[in-house]
Amino acid sequence: MSVSPKHNITADRATDLIMSGQSLVDVFVTGELKLIGLNNFDKSLFASNSIFEYLNAGSSQFTKLVKLSNCELWKCDFAFSYFLGGLEINNCVFENYLDFQAGGHNKDGNVVSIYNSTFKGFVNFFDCRYESEFIISENFFLKGTNLLGKPNGIPVTFDINPKIPNNKGKLDLDIEGDVGSTSVYLP
User: Fold this and answer.
1) How far, CA to CA in Å, does 7 sit from each of 25, 53, 65, 160?
2) C-alpha 183, offset from chain centre
């Protein structure tokens, strides 16, 4: 995957664009893009062919689709976030630990779909619940994930049987993430 943004923008400018309902396309977002604690955010969040130094979208409720396509994220956090309107991640690279814990909650037929992406750090799905369709396929989890594991005896909850074909890496770790780990879990 090759991401080649055409413009550099600050995280503040990116926030202004998102809050006005605009997409982020062909941009390099410098700094920490803070989308923390958004309650019932009613605009689609769409980014394509972009690089993010840090996308911090924890503890938010997105009522519309969140879509990341052909993006590179150096640091990203979605802990405690609800994707009520669905989530689509395709052809992206996440450079570090990614946290989805205690989130999910896609509703009303809104799909969570993650495909053809590379996760270089551990991906934490601890205590997530997915209420509608969940598809995760053709991904590389270099340091694994607990998607199918049971850290602290608590598995991810799927109201509809998930579709999880053709992924590489360990999907059933019983940990919440060893950020400092150098282990690689590919067959």
Assistant:
1) 9, 14, 24, 41
2) 21
- What SS3 class is residue 28? strand
Give pLDDT tens digits along the chain (187 positions): 688 889 999 999 999 999 999 999 999 999 999 999 999 999 999 999 999 999 999 999 999 999 999 999 999 999 999 999 999 999 999 999 999 999 999 998 999 999 999 999 999 999 999 999 999 999 999 999 999 999 999 999 999 999 999 999 999 999 987 655 666 666 5
How many Å apart are CA 70 and CA 94, to the nearest integer?
A: 11
Calpha distance 50→27 (Å, rounded): 5
Instruction: Give the H or E element holding residue 19.
Output: helix 11-19
Structure tokens, 129: 């619940």
- 3 and 68 in contact (C-beta within 8 Å)? no
Q: Cβ contacts of residue 108 below 8 Å, gap of 6+?
A: 84, 132
Q: Is residue 175 a contact partner of residue 101, using CB atoms and an 8 Å limit?
A: no
> How far, in Å, CA of 183 to CA of 146, rounded?
14
Long-range contacts of 60-69 (CB under 8 A, 24+ apart): 60/35, 60/36, 62/38, 62/87, 65/110, 68/92
Contact 185, 144 (CB under 8 A): yes
